[in-house]
């Protein structure tokens, strides 16, 4: 240690970068989680919330809520069309509120007036506030009028923010806030229409939230209420943050693997320089254990130094950039130093350094003194002894266990780590193939001295080829996988949209409107197809008499309310996979046709019973058939369909999809909403665009994580080039003495780097394509196609990165005078 840290720059850099990336991702995730916990009541709009589907609470149910809370606020949310007379119309997410709203926090408006004043009627017309984006689209200014359903409103202010707006980013339209009482004549909250009601509660101090939840659930048992409280005020956001954070941590582990390659290369290069020292120690009687522990202690101290540097960077950068990060986050964050993520990153760094440093340490300790003095390194052992292999295996298992524990998704972690191991194996194989490939290409370079010199170097310097291909290739492989997954998903959407997606979803069509709607569409030559079905929403509460979640776990079908329809006959293009459809005049006990794929995932069989709560009424039916339902084509798809008699008398509306020529879409939307103001038209293209934008945002975050991996790989490249600087100078001197020009020498160095960079890029394409196929096939369940444009860019990036690292040190080698260098050698 007293001799200095010369030769350990790459070691410290790789370890510090990898730990910093992991610490930064963990710190940001912890800050968001702390912000969500701190502002849980404000994000929720109260201490707790009870949500009902498509109805308001009855008098008895409201009395229960009033009894346990000190204050209750009732709101309703639904989608509708905001229209301007003779002008534009646009989809909006309507939030209907009462006088008590908001219980917690403030609604921020422009101009800054109280919400009570903004919603007050003026000139007999009720007031409303909306997001600026919606007002701009409709061409509205403060003081202008617009319509929701059959009710006119005056825009009194622009809506900047409101307490419980955490889900706005996923809504299909910007938010408009009005009074619930002002919607009485709008026709938008009739029986069977698609809306949800929320009851936000202020609870007495010290209230036990679990006890309050049990009390409300028992009192509203038949209403299938959903409970949320301030402990998790934005469960959708927190789940999203957890999953994205876990994914970024796994990408960070890829960076750690790249850093590990750099660690191994740095340790091996350092120990090669220490061969005379090790030989002397062994000659003087030092055992292999003593030699191993001497350098293990040194590597351990340096590991702690690298980890400390990484923790300072990873913990400090988010604090320094907190204002910038917070301004780009759609949720609150409480930035600070969080010991948990820092300890996690430190553990990863220590274990990774141990895994990758033990192998060269063990080989150095096992090499005989006589072999060391002769500098015949090839004469030493190629594999460590069993005790060292056991130590390496134990450290690797500890790293895998830590990753599984901290990521929160052990299946994804194991698959990711398996993918990293597979990519490293593929890259190592590619590096080994570099020598025979260079030998085979030698005949092509007989008249090209620079190319011949480059191929000769690739053929003989296998250690250098392995370091370059492994370090650069793994970073490129992560980028390749991200690019392939993103491109596959976007390509799938682009391929399916023109062929199968409808132009509109029309919802809230009343039963007495559906015939007129079908007639209007039939008379329009631009409409190619119309599909319509009755629709209501239900919650699966029991399966075969047992609680649904006890049987189906966390399956999406039982997590919330789902669409339910009825039909005398199977709809057109329906494929029955098992069982039979009921007769057209069937009037017996309720029967259900269930989506086949989801039934298989849950484990349902023909004859099983399901209890579905529809608008407070429990209906128990028997599964009579399974059918294919494709939810990816943006058409009408219901998990459950029942015989009509089972739902007789239940208030409901109709849903319809319209397939039309793009140029006729505006006219169709205008005609429908003018005739039936209560009907909401949802442009499918806009909905898919919002999902695509969300996926794009995730992809950007993931690409930044992958870029950190690539930066670490480039640091390894620089280290490899630095370690080979001495040999480059010697090589250049020999070539100059033999008559080679500077141009030929420089070209040979550049070609050598380009060959290894291209090899790393090609291997990365293969690894990324396999990863992309696996995710597309088993996670996204879409067809996979290699994105060749991304692949070509990766090869170019690999070549340029290798060239940059090589030429950074090649120019110095060219300036050396041959006589001076050769005399010193």
TrEMBL record:
Residues covered by the MacB-like periplasmic core domain: 13-218
ABC3 transporter permease C-terminal domain location: 250-364, 707-817
UniProt KW keywords: Cell membrane, Membrane, Signal, Transmembrane, Transmembrane helix
Signal peptide: 1-30
Pfam family, one: MacB_PCD
GO cellular component, one term: plasma membrane
Membrane spanning stretches: 247-271, 292-325, 345-365, 386-408, 414-442, 463-483, 704-723, 744-775, 787-814
The keyword Chloroplast is assigned to this record: no
Compartments in which it is found: Cell membrane
InterPro entries (alphabetical): ABC3_permease_C (IPR003838), MacB_PCD (IPR025857), Membrane_comp_ABC_pdt (IPR038766)
Membrane topology according to the record: Multi-pass membrane protein
Record-given protein name: Drug:proton antiporter
